Amino acid sequence: MHSQQAAAPAPAAATPAAERRTGPPHGLPGDDGSARTVYAYATDPEASLPEGRFVEEVRTAIRRATDTGAATGEDDGSLDGLLRQATDWAAGERPRHLALVTPGQGEERPEGHDEVLVRRAVLGCAPLALLSGAWLQWLSAPGNADDPLVLRILALYASDVGAGHPAASRGSAYLELLRRLRLAENAAPAARLTGDQRIPDSAFRLPALLLAMSRRPDDFRGEILGADLCLRAVGLLPALEPVRAVLPTGADWATLDPADRRATEGPLPVERCRAAVDALVEREGERGADAVRSGFRWMLAGLREWSDALHAELVAAGDPAFDMAELMRLRSREGAVYHHQFLLEGKPLARWLAECRTDPGPLLEVLARSKLVKPGRSGASSLVRGLVGERGPMFRVFSPEDLTVIRRWIDSLPPKPADTTTSEPRPASGTSGASGGPPSRPRPVCGTPSRGWPEPCEPGRVPRAVRPPGSARRTTC
User: 212, 248, 273, 382: which has the fewest Cβ within 10 Å?
Assistant: First the structure.
């Protein structure tokens, strides 16, 4: 098996056991949001992909990419020409991504800008990089292990996994990078990644389909080798170039580069892969050559599309408001369970959070106007001070990375003029009115202070806790 991430069966929550399936998931990665499903399924060592509809759909998808490449006029039909395309594209794409962490003259960027981009880039590359080379493992079997072509493929695969050394694979090196950045909670086994909503669906499409193809090696041997050759020609994924610039010693970059050799001597991985491709073409003739070129074209077209999407996301993430909106969207479902009676501008916070799942903008606007936030001064804002402290009602609700996102957003907000009237959160009806008379009914309990006595809600107060039932603190507001 490729590595711990690739070999370990996924938990039932992420990937149903293969024996409970009657066949592969319907649809190709990217169709109707199935990329995560196919990825999780294909990483299960016991998964089986019978021939039929799935095989035909894969061939159709690869053929579509081939036709697109021919339509652009860039493809001269030769493998050498395709290799030049891949290296030229990578050489131009890396500076584009690197510029995201290279400020221009006189340009000021928000605090934490590079850290945000690094986290997003590393997560976006994780589905592919964690299983680097894993698609080669199924090309050998007991019946062909002594075949010269298969031995060439095994030599290439052995370099990817570290030639028998434990936890020495390229994927293991990437896992260490994730751990260094504290992003590895869903990284092992790899199928758990499908539950990490910080990773966009587009990041799963290429590795999901490539891994699924590898489970049918007799049908897609040429396409798999062509796709692998493309990845070797590209080398380190362009989106990881700014990560290397920010963290030059933060990872084993030579190991993470599939074009870099693992030993001091011997041919480069791209040369090993090309030798295996030549052996396949010599055996299968033009049919094998067509399959290799088709797989190469499909991978290169997919890399271009995915890298463009990831670059656009990283550009947008440079705006603290974008990062804050994504955080609110991801946390809105759990947060909407609470705060039904806590009002922001006359509407329950729970409803704001529910609507945030599709459009976080209005919630960000009302938070920016509320008393919870001091625009431009995160250190003075209760949203990231008392609320999340050790004695606060939202202690450990947000991770340190989440709090960094919130602080960046608050600090990026323009300070309010001194005469601007802020819109304060208001408690539910039933509190004292402007006349100062007694409330019409008992005020709701916000929480329990350290002495153990109930404490009434006051205007502008925040619920004392947002814990689920059964935890140490919970809100009753």
Answer: 248
In 10 A of CB 76, how many CB atoms? 10
Contact predicate 381/412, CB 8 Å: no
Residue pair 388/378 in contact (Cβ under 8 Å)? The answer is no
Contact 464, 448 (CB under 8 A): yes
348 membership: H or E segment, kind and range: strand 347-348
User: What is the distance of C-alpha 174 from the center of its chain?
Assistant: 13
Q: What is the mean pLDDT of residues 124-147?
A: 90
Closest of 117, 178, 182, 129 to residue 313, by C-alpha: 117
Beta-bridge partners for 344: 347
Name the residue type at position 148. P
| Contact by Cβ (8 Å): 324, 110 | no
Q: For residue 386, what are the contacts with CB-CB under 8 A and spacing of at least 6?
A: 392
Residue from 387, 351, 388 nearest 366 by CA: 351
b/e for 290-323, b at 16 or more Cβ within 10 A?
A: bbbbbbbbbbbbbbebbbebbbebbeebbbbbbb
For the entire predicted model, the pTM comes to 0.72
pLDDT of residue 106: 61
- Other CB atoms within a 10 A radius of the CB of residue 111 amount to 14
| Residue 251 φ/ψ, nearest 5 degrees | -155, 165
Q: What is the mean pLDDT of the chain?
A: 77
In the predicted structure, residue 437 carries a pLDDT above the cut 50: no
How many CA atoms does the CB half-sphere of 95 hold within 13 Å? Answer: 4
Phi, psi torsion values for 392, nearest 5 degrees? -85, 160
Phi, psi for residue 426 in degrees, rounded to 5? -125, 145
The pLDDT, as a whole number, for residue 323 is 79
Phi, psi of 117 (to 5 degrees): -65, -40
The whole-number average pLDDT for the span 235-263 is: 93
Amino acid at 440: S
Q: Which of 155-159, 192-196, 382-386 has the lowest mean pLDDT?
A: 382-386
| pLDDT band with cut points at 50, 70 and 90 for residue 476 | very low
